[in-house]
Amino acid sequence: MISQAGARQSGADGFGEVMSSLSRLRLDHLAAPLARAVDSYLADHARQLRALSRPEPLTAAEEAALASVGVGRGAGEPDLGPVMGVAVRLAAIQAGAIPLKAAAARLGVNDSRLRQRIKARTLYALRQPGGRGWMVPAFQFRGAAELPGLAQVLPVIREDIHPVELESFLTTPQPDLEDADGAAMRPVDWLAQGRDPGAVRALATGI
Questions:
Q1: Which residues have CB under 8 Å from 43's CB, separation 6+?
Q2: Residue 109 near residue 159 (C-beta atoms within 8 A)
Q3: How many CA atoms lie within 13 A of 65 on its CB side?
Q4: Closest CA relative to residue 146, chosen from 122, 116, 181, 182
Q5: Quick one: how far is CA 158 from the chain centroid?
Q6: Is 178 helix (H, G, I), strand (E, B) or coil?
Q7: From CA 207, how far away is CA 203, in angstroms rounded?
Q8: Tell me: the pLDDT tens digits for 37-64?
Q9: CA distance 141 to 106
Q10: Among 156-160, 161-165, 174-178, 179-183, where is mean pLDDT lowest?
Q11: CA distance to 7, 10, 15, 140, 141, per residue, from 73 (Å)
């Protein structure tokens, strides 16, 4: 069992490592939005996480709620790694997302055109903190250009997909997408090379 002092020190060390990585990669400007996004995610799931510290058994509803945020409860202490992993990845997506106006300028269109695309689900966007305005996750771009063919893939993906799940699909090698040597390719790389978006679209219907 880790003492409270040990847990605090472990947490401090962990955040220190993240800050060091951001500094090493010259991404210090992402530190504040990253911290805010992690804090927001944990606040949204505070009820489920607090239930873990109670000595009495969890209700079926609490077990289901924990499972929904990626926390499994076995015979020993629950593993919080999955929920923290999701929190950090979501925070990174939010911190690196491009405000709608900046995304429109990058694509050479006006804001209203991107709002139309968000509604038509040919562009994936997240609400700004507080629900005002949109942010466009950067995984949809390659440099200053939009990822080729992604607009044909997004409409077949279920509307309630979590941004971390979408990013994971796009950045994980898929056995059905093979390069010239037969190696599995990531959908983002497949599309970036101008390959048939229909192959990615077919896979996307199943996520």
A1: none
A2: no
A3: 14
A4: 122
A5: 15
A6: strand
A7: 7
A8: 667 766 766 665 665 555 556 566 656 6
A9: 10
A10: 161-165
A11: 19, 22, 25, 35, 38
User: What beta strand segments (E) does 71-117 contain?
Assistant: 98-99
The answer to whether residue 5 scores a pLDDT higher than 60 is: no
Angstrom distances, CA of residue 167 to CA of 63, 154, 202: 26, 12, 17
Given a cut of 80, is residue 196 above it in pLDDT?
yes
Q: Give pTM, 2 decimals.
A: 0.67
Reference 180, options 172, 189, 171; nearest CA is: 189
Q: Is the pLDDT of residue 185 over 60?
A: yes
- What rounded mean pLDDT belongs to the chain? 79
The one-letter code for the residue type at 1 is: M
Cα–Cα distance between 93 and 83 in angstroms, integer?
Answer: 15
Q: What is the dihedral of CA 140, 141, 145, 147, to 10 degrees?
A: -50
Residue with tokens 């990669």: 25
Compute CA distances 106 → 13, 68, 74, 184, whole Å.
Answer: 38, 36, 48, 31
Helix (H) or strand (E) holding 184: strand 184-185
Alpha-carbon distance of 202 to 160, in angstroms, equals 18
